[in-house]
Amino acid sequence: MKATIINIGDELLIGQVVNTNASRMAQMLVGAGIDVCCTEVIGDNADDINDSLSRALKNCQIVLITGGLGPTKDDITKKTLCNYFHSELYENPEALANIQRIFSARGYELTPINRQQAWVPRCCTMINNVVGTAPCMWFELPSEQPGQPASVVVSMPGVPFEMVNLMETEIVPRLQRHFCTGQIINKNILVQGIGESFLSDLIEPWELALPSTIRLAYLPQSGMLKLRLTARGGHDERALLQQQIDEAVKALYPIAGQYIVGEDLETIPELVAYTMKRHHATLATAESCTGGALAQQLTAMAGASEYYLGGVVAYSNETKERALGVKHETLLAHGAVSEETVRQMAEGVRERLHADYAVATTGIAGPTGGTPEKPVGTVWIAVASPQGTTAKLLKFGDRRAQTIERTCNAVWAELVRIVNDETK
Predict the structure, then answer these.
(1) Distances (CA, A) of 32 to 2, 38, 128
(2) What is the pLDDT of residue 223?
């Protein structure tokens, strides 16, 4: 079963708003056994909407649309879909009651323009959006092949949390029932300390022995490698697929277990959280060039308080001295971007916050501020642990955002390596 995702909005096309809907929708569809064959972003233009929808329906039985359902004149999706399906708009009583409920709860007066959101095409099935005022619309097109279920077009609000709620509670379950979708199970294995080609050679016999229902993908990331196992089967084969995945993972450990650092994780910060929790260790951060990015990545995940004690963003030399205990003589002799300084930053925050481990960063993120001795992109990182402190010199380019991202990835990779080595 295949689906196309169409995200509508001029703000998406010009980059004013980042389109997070496509990735989130794709994840939920794949988890429900539905393949995504195409994603497309288009503006608030009726001709573009019609063209995109027609193309999508030629290739897929499922088309999911977000955006353009607001009460203002530039929101034209509903009217365009009504014309596409040769229908007419009418005021849906359930949709109106939902809008009245929301306005009443917020203490707002229901204006005529907001009441228009209760109008939907007669040919659609209206699905209430309990967390917003724009209703969801479900359209069906009879299949040209006898015995095949009707194609489905779903139009949802573009507000991310409204879309996610509708997808989770209504749309995905309805699609699974309508199409009797198959099963897709994904399993992530995070690997560190070995290159992609070397790992491929090492596990080749294991890979060749995988069942035909399982596909393996190598997904390199900064500081680590992710192996993704994807098992596919019929709608009643989930238990069998899960068993095959479990057996495959179990067989991988005797071959490459020394390089496996985690399972069922997507990002490096998730790997850090997993590692610290698994070893019941605490962590503190001291940041200069990353400006709080390390702390933000940790606290963006639920449960960070189980292991993360806190951090210091010490941008000036004076703050490095006062908050972290970096020696004045060290800064005079070696400068802020140096091995000596980054070591004292890590050791200082570890001591002050009584953490098991601490990480530190200092560098020249750019695009200016470099010297011939320390060009833009020069970064020092350090990890302080119960067994000592290690520091590394890194050389990145002159792109500030990229340097900060790469520095964070390098810090986390070094931390995970050290924690795993010291807790064997």
Answers:
(1) 11, 17, 22
(2) 60
In tens, the pLDDT along 299-338 reads: 999 999 999 999 999 999 999 999 999 999 999 999 999 9
The domains of the chain, with CATH numbers, are 2-179 (3.40.980.10), 183-263 (3.30.70.2860), 268-422 (3.90.950.20)
* pLDDT over 70 at 222, yes or no: no
Q: Are 95 and 128 in contact (CB under 8 A)?
A: yes
Beta-sheet pairing, 378-385 with 151-156: unpaired
> Position of tokens 């951060």?
285
List, for residues 330-365, the tens digit of each pLDDT value. 999 999 999 999 999 999 999 999 999 999 999 999
CB 344 within 8 A of CB 325: yes
Considering only residues 143 and 389, tell me which one the structure prediction assigns the higher pLDDT.
389
End-to-end CA distance of the chain: 45
